[in-house]
Amino acid sequence: MKTLVLGLGNPILCDDSVGFRVVQTLEGRFGQDVVVMETSLAGLSLLDLLVGYDKVILIDSIQTKRGKVGEVYRLDTGDFATTKHTASPHDVNLATALELGKRLGLAIPREIAIFAIEVQDVTTFGESCTPQVERAIPKVVDMVVSELDRQC
User: Helix, strand, or coil here: 135?
Assistant: First the structure.
């Protein structure tokens, strides 16, 4: 099974870099069927990276109303079903981009797992995460490894 492990975010915005930090820890740990990559792309631009894989594991930051900083959520695209919108091609979310890809006949992954880390600060310039988010990184790494072990 051809798998992509993709860290999302911005490497210079404090906690928004958590996806990058997780995949940097994972690089070189898997065989040739698992590609580990990081990107700051989103929306429709993200489709180019996802096409052709059987499975994709996304790692990204998230901010929810009641979340506890450092908490990790394991989500899938069904969790975003109510957020589909096409107000502008510049702010198309993941669910909408995937739906468009399917309608266009693109080879969208059959399975997409999302590991989202509840973050505190995504606006301060900095290359390190806040302490609670930093402590979550090894947990997310273990969760991704377990996710990949299940498919073997």
Answer: helix
Taking the C-alpha atoms of residue 100 and residue 108, their distance in angstroms, rounded to an integer, is 10
**Residue extents of the structural domains in the chain:** 3-151
Q: What is the pTM of this model?
A: 0.92
Q: How many CA atoms lie within 13 A of 57 on its CB side?
A: 27
CA distance 45 to 94: 10
- For residue 88, the one-letter residue type is S
Q: pLDDT of 68-103, one tens digit each?
A: 999 999 998 888 765 544 445 556 788 888 989 999
CATH number for the domain formed by residue range(s) 3-151:
3.40.50.1450
Rounded distance, CA 122 to CA 47, Å?
A: 24
Half-sphere exposure (Cβ direction) of 124: Cα atoms closer than 13 Å = 10
Whole-number Å distance between alpha carbons of 88 and 144: 32
